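Hey, I'm writing a tutorial for new members on how sequence and structure tokens pair up, and I'd like a real worked example in the thread rather than a made-up one. If someone can provide the structure for the chain below, I'll link this post from the tutorial.
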Amino acid sequence: MSKNSFVMGTLLGLFFPMVAFALIYIFWFYDTMAPGDYLNYLWIRSATFAGVISISLIINLPVFYFNIWSHRYETARGVIFSTMLCGGFIIYLKLIR
């Protein structure tokens, strides 16, 4: 897979927020609940889940700028696409659910 591809950007844009999501669990909830309980807690409280996802997506900003500065525009487009995809999920959590 090329370093400058839409698919690579989409995968990076989904991978780094998942890592940030896991780090949020490790730093704030690791001592109080198991991972399954954490996900269940967030699913029940959808506003909290949307907030945690929003904070996790902030990690995409440096990834996006790194790709722009290194002239990997297709990869940057993939990062933006995955961020908007997650944004659609946040809208679902906040408005529809």
